[in-house]
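Quick one:
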Amino acid sequence: MITNKTIDQGQPFDWGKTAPDYAKYRDIYPDLFYQKILNLGLCRRGQNVLDLGTGTGVLPRNLYKHGARFTGVDISEEQIQQARRLSAAAGMDIEYIAASAEEITFPAKSFDVVTASQCFLYFDKAVVLPLIHRILKDDGHFCILYMVWLPEETDIAGHSEDLVLKYNPAWTGGNMDRHTLPQTTHWPEELFELENTETFDMNIPFTRESWHGRMKACRGVGASSLPPETIAAFEADHLQYLNSQPEKFDILHSATIINLRRRDQNP
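Output:
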């Protein structure tokens, strides 16, 4: 269980509660997303990569074929169990560790790349950023990734978001746009320098079922501390709405990739 006074008005949440739905419905990044990472020279053959907040191992599993050696870390044991299950089923040799990002204890200069996708806002930056700097090799890279749907530009996303807020008014994960990505733009300049950043749009295809599953697996619903009867009421309301929509549709998302290079503190 995580409690952060800056997130969901301090309402606790637990990604472990939604691990099965997360494994089934949140592996949605399109090929373009991964190609953007590869184009930066990251997560390629010969590199040792640590994925913080790995969840069900979405990033390592989808980049595995490009030859990097991956380790995934997540605070949720249930998410890590799903990551291990999915990786084993695909014959992938990926190490997974259940731990918070603030507790990683890898030796200094262990990794060429550290990634953090959809999770940087949850970290204690004062603790995690020096740790990442310590475990990165000279000129190593820390890559922050984030993707949000755009509720003002896609009616289905906007209506779904309204329903989440109807049942969970404390949820602060909504009303995102290309300029309000949470807490991804500050880092100690003595530790990292910005090499490049890019924000780009992607249309992601869904069915009624997969979009409903995606919404169930968000922090405002499945991972929240809402009582089961409230979650069930949201599901019924959301399904009723989706039944009035086409069976297949696209949801416009905006993705941001921030690529930081490790600075040498002792030149």
